[in-house]
């Protein structure tokens, strides 16, 4: 495994000045018809002095190799001169966005889902990125897809029936993103890649079960709403009976209490407006 070696080459300004001086001398030699000297100086100037000049922009690096051997990496931005015989490969140190494609996988419960992630990454160690893997850009793409697939397989999309404590892809976004970022850093560290952030950008049931799952979610929501309505209605009926008894407005036997409770529950729990019936007779005769 290659370890990054950062080097600080000399400034290129003095070398560039030397290049101009040698260029002037070669021109003078040609003018004075000293063609051998002029050709030699010109060849030295263009083949040994000029090729060693490099410009390194901010958040950019140059990986240097000499006859197949790793020499070092220049990470400082500026104008430098290096060994002209070295091979110079540019590696960007800027942050990159990987907008992953939508993948169709099975979650922990076996339900087919669609999932995609956005990964923010950058090259941290240039030597590993250049020499440990064939193509670090392709390596990031493939490993990111593999990590997202693995993450989808170990968590359910939503809570199973009667289970509310487990982490799901839908509700545990923060925890899932942390696990995805950690797994990506473990996978990509061998290529010198650092993952700055990883987030789930798309999550949905696959089209073939989306309709059925939507009906299931709607049914669950209706049941939860009905449960809340019934609990509230029972409380209101209880309060009504208690107030009537405390203030002595009317005395009801058990049969009339049951009828009153039934009527109040119908009114309070019904999903349609109830038409009232006015009783104009006695209390016990309609």
From TrEMBL:
Kindly state which keywords UniProt assigns to this record, in alphabetical order.
Answer: Membrane, Transmembrane, Transmembrane helix
Please give the Pfam families that the UniProt record associates with this protein.
Band_7 (PF01145)
Location comes to: Membrane
Q: Which SMART domains match?
A: PHB (SM00244)
- Note whether Translocase occurs among the keywords: no
Q: Does the keyword Transmembrane helix apply?
A: yes
Q: Which InterPro entries match?
A: Band_7 (IPR001107), Band_7/SPFH_dom_sf (IPR036013)
Membrane topology designation: Single-pass membrane protein
Q: What is its main location?
A: membrane
Q: Where is the Band domain?
A: 51-217
Q: Which domain of life is it from?
A: Bacteria
- TM annotation in the entry: 12-31, 36-55
For this entry, the protein name equals SPFH domain-containing protein
Ranked from the top, the taxonomy reads: Bacteria, Pseudomonadati, Bacteroidota, Sphingobacteriia, Sphingobacteriales
């Amino acid at each position: 495994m290659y370890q990054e070696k950062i080097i600080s080459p000399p400034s290129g300004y003095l070398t560039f000045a030397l290049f101009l001086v040698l260029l002037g001398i070669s021109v003078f030699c040609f003018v004075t018809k000293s063609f051998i000297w002029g050709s030699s100086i010109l060849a030295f100037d263009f083949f040994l002095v000029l090729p060693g000049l490099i410009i390194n922009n901010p958040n950019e690096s140059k990986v240097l190799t000499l006859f197949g051997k790793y020499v070092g990496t220049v990470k400082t931005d500026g104008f430098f001169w290096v060994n002209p015989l070295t091979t110079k490969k540019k590696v960007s140190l800027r942050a990159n966005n990987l907008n992953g494609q939508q993948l169709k996988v099975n979650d922990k419960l076996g339900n087919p889902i669609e999932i995609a992630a956005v990964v923010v990454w950058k090259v941290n160690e240039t030597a590993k990125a250049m020499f440990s893997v064939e193509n670090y850009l392709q390596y990031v793409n493939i490993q990111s897809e593999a990590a997202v697939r693995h993450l989808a397989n170990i968590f359910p999309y939503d809570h199973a029936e009667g289970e509310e404590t487990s982490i799901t892809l839908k509700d545990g976004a923060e925890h899932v993103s942390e696990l995805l970022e950690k797994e990506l850093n473990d996978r990509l560290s061998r290529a010198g890649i650092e993952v700055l952030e990883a987030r789930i950008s798309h999550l949905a049931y696959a089209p073939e079960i989306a309709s059925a799952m939507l009906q299931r979610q709607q049914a669950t929501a209706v049941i939860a709403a009905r449960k809340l309505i019934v609990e509230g209605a029972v409380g209101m009926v209880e309060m009504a009976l208690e107030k009537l008894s405390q203030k002595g407005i009317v005395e009801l036997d058990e049969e009339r209490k049951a009828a009153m409770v039934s009527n109040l529950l119908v009114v309070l729990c019904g999903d349609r407006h109830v038409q009232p019936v006015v009783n104009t007779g006695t209390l016990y005769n309609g």
